[in-house]
Specification:
The chain has 405 residues and is mainly alpha-helical. 73% of the residues lie in helices and 2% in strands. Helix 3 packs across helix 10. The protein is globular, with a radius of gyration of 23 Å. It starts with a helix and ends in a 6-residue tail after the last helix.
Length: 405
């Protein structure tokens, strides 16, 4: 279905306006968003995406409406997997909390620009070559299989290549200067690690697009819907990161759910390719009479799979243990790295979060506490170091001595 130019103009204006609003009102002044702030703005961006979907439904009809919502929900679910990588990157580069918003926003904008190019290239290929559906379907099935492999922290680091390449090409300082991209050291202008982190975030998200773009084309071939669903799923990603940061490790079964969704869409694409077949060695180049899966059925299955896997993850004791361990490690690392930030209130708040996670670990069933003691020697050493540093700071404060950074 041809989408009027006015609809494109309105959608582009809305997306550009939201990005500008995000930058000038949230990111321009460096700060660490509170949980309440992240929750409010995450809900606001989801609400805007849903209202846009209803507008599509009203002006474009039920078919376009269902395709938009199926694409948006799928892209949003897949974007949660991106957040694991964002967390690894921000931790690896030791990005100060107040500067993380700018890193995420710039990286996401870069990703949106590149994904837009992918979308139009994909649409052109689909319109010219029906066999591309076979390629997309096979790619999704392979991706689904890879997601079922045993996970480690590196399994989420699809951007490891990006990280290595960026580090090799860009020579930066070892420390940050607020949220500045360039600083002056000994009279010379030098890049800070901020630029490196931005490139890593944007490049990693582009790599994820190689899976998500074929997935959404499996639900709709309308370029307007593919673009807007992709854009709105990315727009609220920064706020969603700060909202779910402490819960990401809890979603231990989400990978299985995403693998099932990608495999399902991969099969759907193959069926569609058979229905439009022109490949000579398949049915002599003639279309194959197969049953195609409707977008409405796809939407229903996607929602059910996500609800089941998220509920199972949140109710899982193993997920609770994994979350406590990951959060304790994260808070201890941040506490020790807060020499970059002079806000002592933030330092004490981070230490309190770390000790709260330690209490959570201590309250876990014996099975999990034993596993942690036996398999997390690095974590235990990290926590002990944080306690020693905190005790030293308290002693120096009480004695009126200057604090060590």
């Amino acid at each position: 279905m041809t989408v009027p130019a006015l609809a494109w103009a309105c959608a582009l204006a809305l997306i550009a306006g939201l990005l500008l609003f995000d930058f000038f009102f949230h990111v321009r002044t460096a700060h660490t968003p509170s949980l309440i702030e992240a929750a409010i703005w995450s809900a606001a961006y989801v609400g805007i995406a849903v209202l846009f979907g209803f507008a599509v439904w009203i002006f474009g009809g039920p078919t376009m409406g269902v395709e938009y919502f199926a694409g948006y929900i799928t892209e949003k679910a897949l974007s949660v997997d991106n957040l694991f990588v964002f967390l690894i990157i921000l931790t690896t580069f030791r990005v100060p909390g107040a500067a993380q918003q700018k890193v995420l926003l710039v990286g996401i904008v870069f990703s949106l620009v590149v994904r837009t190019g992918f979308i139009f290239v994909g649409a052109t290929l689909i319109n010219r070559f029906a066999w591309v559906f076979y390629v997309f379907g096979a790619a999704l099935l392979i991706t689904a299989g890879n997601m079922l492999k045993p996970e480690s922290e590196d399994s989420h680091s699809g951007g490891t290549v990006v990280l290595r390449l960026a580090r090799r090409l860009l020579h930066t300082t070892d420390s940050y200067d607020g949220d500045k991209l360039v600083t002056v050291i000994d009279g010379r202008r030098r890049l800070t690690p901020m630029l490196l982190a931005m490139i890593a975030i944007g490049g990693t998200d582009v790599l994820f697009a190689l899976d998500s773009i074929p997935a959404i084309f499996g639900l709709t071939q309308n370029v307007f819907l593919v673009f807007t669903a992709t854009a709105f799923s990315l727009l609220g990603l920064r706020q969603l990161f700060f909202l779910l940061e402490g819960l990401l490790d809890r979603l231990i079964y989400l990978g299985f759910g995403l693998a099932a969704i990608l495999a399902f869409i991969g099969v759907k694409l193959v069926l569609h390719a058979l229905h439009r077949n022109t490949v000579p060695f398949i049915n002599h180049g003639e279309p194959v009479p197969v049953t195609e899966i409707s977008t409405a059925a796809s939407l229903g299955l996607i929602v059910v799979v996500l609800l089941v896997t998220v509920a199972a993850s949140l109710l899982s004791p193993a997920g609770r243990a994994q979350t406590a361990v990951a959060n304790a490690r994260r808070h201890a690392t941040r506490y020790l790295d807060l020499g970059y930030e002079a806000d002592q209130t933030l330092r004490e708040r981070t230490y309190a979060k770390m000790t709260a996670e330690e209490n959570t670990i201590a309250a876990l069933p014996r099975k999990y506490t034993r596993q942690i003691r036996e398999g997390e020697a690095e974590l235990i050493a990290l926590l002990e170091r944080a306690h020693i540093v905190h005790a030293d700071r308290v002693a120096r404060t009480e004695a009126g001595l200057p604090l060590r950074m």
